[in-house]
Amino acid sequence: QLSHDMQTNLSIILLNAQQINVEHSKPDQERKKKILLQSSLLMQRVRDILSVGRDEEPNISQNDALVLCRNVITEFDDALFPNVKLLSNGKNIIFECDPIKLTRALRNAVENGIRALQKKEGIVELSCSHNKENVYFTITDNGIGMDNITIENMMKPYFTTKKRLGGYGIGTMIMQKVAELHHGSIAVKSEQGKGSSIIFTIPREYKKK
Fold first, then answer.
1. Which distant-in-sequence residues (6+ apart) come within 8 Å of 29 by Cβ?
2. Is the pTM of this model over 0.90?
């Protein structure tokens, strides 16, 4: 019910922001773009909450893995994360996926990397690579890393180490669900004090099961 109510409020914010006339002020144009972008992202997150546990088919189309990486990184406002250097890297490769759902999953993984820096200066990189069968998306940070217990439990429903900061484990559930919808998988590598890598393995060709 709360998610439905939030969608209504966000729709009103988006509608009113779209109607603000700022064509004579470049700084205000940039502010309007940020309001519209962040409101749209928040709307998507509300829809993520609504979709958890729901069985739905992915909307598959052909996409470029490197373009997807770049799009994810540009969703983050540099002003909010002055301590973080966000990078995208890789090679162009066309593959089949649901771009909206996969973008959400990758964005959640990048956010986890940003949180792992704990407001210290660091780097979060989203890169893509491929072989004959799969495309690999790797999110790497040089943050605090994870212990073995966290690595073993992080893919369990609602598991989070951020409860005191308002975390509920929804983001990781979305990541796992999206990987499964694409008949792919997620692997985690981490070392305490050195950082973490999350690797999405997505088949280049989507096949219905």
1. 22, 23
2. no
